[in-house]
Amino acid sequence: MHCARACRGLISRRSHTVLRAWRLQSRAAAAGPDLSGIYPPIATPFTAREEVDAEKLEENLQKYAEVPFKGLVVQGSNGEYPYLTAAERVEVVRTVRRSLPPGRLLMAGSGCESTRATVQLTEKMASAGADAALVVTPSFYKGKMDSRALIRHFTKVADSSPVPVVLYSVPANTGLDLPLEAVVELSQHPNIRGLKDSGGDITRIGLIVHKTKMEDFQVLAGSAGFLMAAYCVGAVGGVCALANVLGRELCELERLCRSGRWDEARVLQQRLIEPNAAVTRKLGVPALKQAMEWFGFHGGACRSPLQPLTEAETQQLRRDFSSNGWL
């Protein structure tokens, strides 16, 4: 009888192993795009009347085509998506699709406050040419956005989406971190491909990589300031505002990290920390657009109510770039 129980246990363990292998093989067969690489979350140029300036956008895209990016993120936070109508957001994606070189990935921000609106906009983004949908956490009612609500939201979006979904956690803007347990559960969905984490908590990023390693799920750093550290704990790339102006340098940092040249990577990473902080948490999108002008891109003004930098802020921004050898 003891022998029979032992045999049953062995069969059970073997069955579990076979089932897990089959599950991984099935997920690999249905795998979405490989997200690894560097993406600039591109800015949206506006005319003097605050209309989307498609001509200047296309000129920026021509310059980005010369940089070895994995792709572009369109209508993310740096694209000022909260200030664009749904129709404008879709049209920007359509414009980018027309100009994007073959083989480049187009990740389109389609997050809205309601699940229904997010499902609808995600479908429109896919029709406009998006390869993947970047879906930010709904946050207006952040006190009620617990794991249960967020898992249900993202699951419904992924169930309906014609393209793979990438989760987007950006607590600096939303006041809400996508909970670890929610990420782990959502990573098991066959149409959820990964996570862009902009929080900067490297222990959290490492833990997410560890706890999702059996899934077809990839993690992207959401900022250039901790890109090297994120690579160290298993991230596969980055969506970095700074790539809008120092794209080649961010791609070089990626190459150094992936080839294990950590001493060189550390030197470059250190030079990127201050300018990155300037165009993100310190001075935000107006600073990014100002820096784009200095580096030969069309940045221009933001859509109201975002205001241009003051003279003092502009001087600080220039110091953050020039003191690190970029200007």
UniProtKB/TrEMBL annotation:
It is an enzyme of class 4 (lyase). GO terms for biological process: glyoxylate catabolic process. Pyruvate binds at residue 239. Its EC number is 4.1.3.16. It catalyses: (4R)-4-hydroxy-2-oxoglutarate = glyoxylate + pyruvate; (4S)-4-hydroxy-2-oxoglutarate = glyoxylate + pyruvate. PROSITE patterns: DHDPS_2 (PS00666). Transmembrane segments: none annotated. InterPro entries: Aldolase_TIM (IPR013785), DapA-like (IPR002220), Schiff_base-form_aldolases_AS (IPR020625). The active site is at residues 168, 196. GO terms for molecular function: (R,S)-4-hydroxy-2-oxoglutarate aldolase activity; 4-hydroxy-tetrahydrodipicolinate synthase activity. Keywords: Lyase, Schiff base. GO terms for cellular component: mitochondrion. Belongs to the DapA family. Homotetramer. Catalyzes the final step in the metabolic pathway of hydroxyproline. This is 4-hydroxy-2-oxoglutarate aldolase, mitochondrial.
